[in-house]
Design goal:
439 residues, mainly beta, 6 domains, 4-stranded antiparallel β-sheet, elongated
Amino acid sequence: MAQLLLAGLLLLLLPAGTRGAQCPVPHIAHGQLSSAGNFTSGSTARLECEPGFVPSGTGTVRCTFNGRWYPWVPSCVPGQCPHPPPVEFADPQPRREFLVGSTLSYSCRPGFSSIPGVSPTITCLQNFSWSSVPRLCQKVQCPSPAIPHGRAASPGGAPHSFGQQLQFQCEPGYVLRGSGRAQCSADGTWSPAVPYCLGVCDPPPKIAHGQHSASGVKQFPYGSEVKYSCAEGLSLIGSESLFCTSGDGENLTWSGAAPECRAVRCPQPVLQRGTVSPQTFTFPYGLLLHFSCQPGFGLQGAAQSQCQADGTWHPPLPTCQPVLCPQPRVPYGRVKSPLGGRRWYQTNDTVTFQCLPGYQLPDNGMMPLEESWTATCLPDGSWTPLPKCVKEGDADVCQEVHYIKSVFECGVPVEEVKNLLEIQKLFLEIKKLEMELEN
Ligand SMILES: *[C@@H]1O[C@H](CO)[C@@H](O)[C@H](O)[C@H]1NC(C)=O
Ligand SMILES: *[C@@H]1O[C@H](CO)[C@@H](O)[C@H](O)[C@H]1NC(C)=O
Ligand SMILES: *[C@@H]1O[C@H](CO)[C@@H](O)[C@H](O)[C@H]1NC(C)=O
Ligand SMILES: *[C@@H]1O[C@H](CO)[C@@H](O)[C@H](O)[C@H]1NC(C)=O
């Protein structure tokens, strides 16, 4: 300030001879001084800036008598645009300065998306105004929700744009799985997710004297299971569980008929000379019994039986019958006792044999010849070994035949068998001659 006053005083006190002096023409970036008075002392000059630039401070200066610019040589600085214009549903980049030539972009607010093909950028022009801004943003759209067997209702307004709420309902016979309402969210999806409509079964049939596991429930989704139970002491006849299944394809149905509750008792099983298991006192529907007989007795019938819905055992209950041995037969022998023999014998029964006249029990080489032979009926229906009656005096022939037979059976080389047969032939020839001589 003091300098300014001093300069002003000097201006007034300067001698008249110094008037008419010229001020220097300054070099000014992006502009120039223009003066009507040829930059002589006392004249004023105005700063003209290039487009997009503005004078800093005052735009007019005066040439003093001592040839200096007052107050000082001015300069041109870049101009600025005003605050960027508002754009619907969009915000500009945050910025303090808006210099000529700079660009600024807008971004859409949440729930809005930029309109395709429209540039979201504006430029600060040289006339200090913004290039024009078209409509940049539109509301986000959610896809139209698809709910088979259901529908969506919107309480007014554009049905599928950002912020819009929808309410969902299912057709009769279907139940909603998921949220009953959803809102179109900023990212273009429904939130929470669009629900779906699930086919349901009506409540399962009620039964007399029994109940199912889901009383009070009105709708049963696909795959639901209900279990039936009967009142105390009653038997459940049929399948215990029903399932909600897709019956005819469109509507859901229960997997079958409901069971029945009935008092079913089978008669107490009696098995003489045998055992029944398990050992219980009541014989309700479905009970499975197993049977076995004492030794020496055989099961006639099935080894197990189940109590049926009609109160009978199936297969029918078996009996235990004594195991019997058939009348044994001995070639060239006869039964000595019991007298006359019997058709069947029980376990531990014995039969004594005798050989027919002209036949004898074989000589085992050690013991004296036995007169009779006893066999016993075994618990499995077979006999202890039975005797063989051989022709008296033929014992050696028999032994020979047995020997040859065994030779055949054990794979002796053919050449040896042939020799043996030759020997056998000779042996038989001799025997034959002997018998002829005897007669
Ligand atoms: C400026 O100078 C030109 C020529 O140099 C002259 O013709 C003109 O008259 C002058 N103007 C003033 C106001 O002195
Ligand atoms: C600025 O210039 C542009 C073109 O360069 C023009 O369209 C616009 O109208 C001008 N603005 C003003 C306020 O003069
Ligand atoms: C399915 O159920 C609906 C409503 O209960 C009924 O109108 C329709 O006839 C049923 N469809 C079939 C195939 O039974
Ligand atoms: C047969 O005899 C044996 C031995 O004497 C005896 O243990 C068994 O109980 C008898 N069996 C029958 C069915 O009488």
